[in-house]
Specification:
The complex is a heterodimer of chains A (313) and B (251). By secondary structure, chain A is mostly helical. Chain A contains 17 helices and no strands. Helix content of chain B is 48%, strand content 10%. The chains are: A mainly alpha (313), B alpha+beta (251).
Chain lengths: 313, 251
């Protein structure tokens, strides 16, 4: 029976992928983790030792132990392992270790900073990549053990698709759940759409926002009621809920990616920063695998026979 | 389209359960709406729709090739390693529970940032915030724009590592803490030679668009201690408070 959605995510799992897309995602995640753990926020959190009323799934004794004894070690581990991940050295070992260290470290971070920055976007893709062949190309592992990885690549291009689709699924979860949280329960959702939350973000953060640094003065009187706040609010919720379409068809991947990045760029200008670059990292999963094969073809070191295994869809 | 009816019923059932649970969870915020009669109607409508969904699902379950069998077959055929499939399945189930309940238990999240609705109201036209400032070599005043420092193109005082997460917490979460002030002062002293941070008031008048800065310490202390400040009052060192009363600043 013909499906109503011939390019839904379950079908796409069976389509060929690109090892180069996995390699780029692996490197992008490594760079992002390295950037995230090189933040002075950890020095600040260790110094203040305060919490924000947030919770983890782990027992209190675990959270306290990490905070008291493990943060410097976890920071060092994450820095070293993320560099190894980018280079693709001992990747099969590095990925589980990095996933563990990253989740343990950002549990400490989340208790002190009640924002889902970095960890929400990265922990699941890191976990998925523990089972994927992201080191099959563009890695030191692949250079050191050519014949082994050549044999692995010959097992077919479908093995490179599922980690990308699961990462895409995680992207959908983040934005769709964010949209649901704003309208759930419906009683509150109707009130939320009045735009007051957006208004207060823009109003209270104005003096510490790039809008102020760039333009020097507000565009209009943010203190008064304006249709702009309602329009921004409704657009944001509609866009977040619209991301679920990525599970049903591959027609809107680029549109959704551009709109999400545009939303984050606007939020960045209002002083709500931190999400755009992690969204861009996951956004790599929304690009067609063929684009990465084409990128690989531009590099002289890539074997000609191994490029173009993923047909255009 | 008829073949998708069970899928739609299952999604709708989940939606109703989550919506009803979160409505009761936040009932205190909706008391103005949920009077007794309305509450009965609200719950009743949910119950009727839920029963309709259950009816559709039970009818589907009687078929030999029902949608649960089809879903199992689809999942079993996915070209994902068995261990990965198990791990991902467990993660997604736990995640679904968190979205349903509307809670975050790191690393599982309902992604509920900015979820709280606020009643529409006008805000004061003038917004004033206490802010640190410093003098440059020519004795000119510069407000310390901490949030500027995480933007690569505008960071003029702090460098690598003073990213969004740090500047947000230093500027909002922990701005009232003494240790935050000392870490910031030490970093500025080491990198730029700024030896002292003073406290002033930055004001924006949204009606005129004018932004101004008042470096008067006495005004800043009075405002910081007595007015409502976004994310709470800023930490002001004791020697600056003493200076208001004429006690000289220790070198």
């Amino acid at each position: 029976m013909e499906s109503l959605f011939p390019s839904n995510i379950f079908r796409r799992f069976h389509w060929p992928g690109s090892p180069y897309q996995l390699a780029v995602l692996r490197m992008a995640m490594g760079v992002q983790v390295f950037y995230a753990v090189n933040s002075k926020i950890f020095d600040l959190l260790l110094a203040v030792g305060a919490r924000q009323g947030t919770h983890t799934l782990f027992p209190e004794v675990w959270d306290s132990f990490i905070a008291a004894h493990c943060v410097p070690g976890l920071l060092l581990a994450c820095k070293v392992l993320s560099v190894l991940l980018v280079l693709g050295v001992f990747t099969r070992l590095v990925l589980p270790l990095l996933t563990f260290a990253f989740v343990a470290l950002f549990g400490f971070y989340y208790l002190g900073v009640n924002a889902p920055i970095h960890w929400l976007y990265l922990w699941f893709p890191l976990l998925v990549f523990c089972f994927a062949g992201s080191e099959h190309v563009w890695s030191i592992d692949a250079i050191m053990r050519r014949s082994k990885y050549k044999a692995l690549r010959k097992q077919g291009a479908v093995q490179y698709r599922w980690p990308v689709e699961l990462t895409l699924g995680w992207f959908v979860y983040i934005y769709f759940a964010a949209g649901l949280a704003k309208v759930f329960p419906i009683l509150k959702g109707v009130a939320w759409l009045n735009g007051q939350t957006s208004k207060e973000i823009i109003y209270y953060r104005y003096l510490d926002s790039p809008f102020h640094y760039l333009f020097g003065q507000p565009f209009f009187n943010y203190a008064e009621a304006s249709f702009v706040f309602g329009a921004l609010t409704i657009s944001a919720v509609l866009l977040e809920l619209f991301t679920i379409v990525l599970l049903f068809t591959n027609r809107f991947h680029i549109l959704v990616l551009v709109l999400v990045i545009a939303m984050h760029f606007f939020l960045y200008l209002t002083g709500v920063a931190g999400f755009m670059q992690t969204a861009l990292v996951l956004g790599l999963a929304l690009l067609k695998p063929q684009r990465f094969d084409q990128l690989a073809a531009l590099l002289p070191s890539t074997p000609r026979r191994e490029i173009g295994s993923a047909p255009e869809r | 389209m008829k073949r998708y009816l069970p899928h739609i019923a299952l999604c709708l059932l989940w939606f109703l359960i989550a919506n009803l649970y979160q409505s009761f969870e936040q009932l205190d915020k909706h008391q103005h709406y949920l009077t007794t009669n309305r509450l009965i109607a609200y719950v009743g409508a949910h119950a009727i729709l839920m029963l309709a969904c259950v009816f559709v699902l039970l009818r589907e379950a009687k078929r030999p090739d029902n949608f649960i069998v089809r879903c199992k077959r689809t999942l079993a055929a996915l070209p994902i390693p068995r261990a990965a499939k198990a791990v991902v399945g467990v993660v997604l189930m736990i995640q679904l529970v968190h979205i349903t309940l509307g809670v975050t238990n790191y690393p599982f999240a309902d992604v509920g940032m900015f979820r709280w609705a606020k009643p529409a109201r006008e805000l004061p036209t003038v917004l004033t915030v206490p802010k640190y400032y410093y003098y440059d070599a020519a004795h000119r005043i510069h407000p310390l724009e901490i949030r500027k420092q995480h933007i690569w193109a505008t960071a003029d005082l702090l460098g690598w590592g003073y990213n969004n997460e740090y500047t947000f917490s230093a500027n909002y979460h922990y701005k009232g803490q003494q240790i935050n002030f000392h870490l910031l002062s030490d970093a500025l002293r080491a990198r730029t030679g700024i030896d002292t941070l003073w406290v002033g008031l930055q004001t924006v008048d949204f009606a005129t668009g004018k932004v101004s800065f008042d470096p008067d310490l006495a005004h800043a202390v009075a405002f910081n201690d007595n007015e409502r400040v976004f994310y709470g009052p800023l930490y002001i060192p004791e020697y600056q408070r003493q200076r208001i009363h004429g006690i000289p600043v220790p070198q």
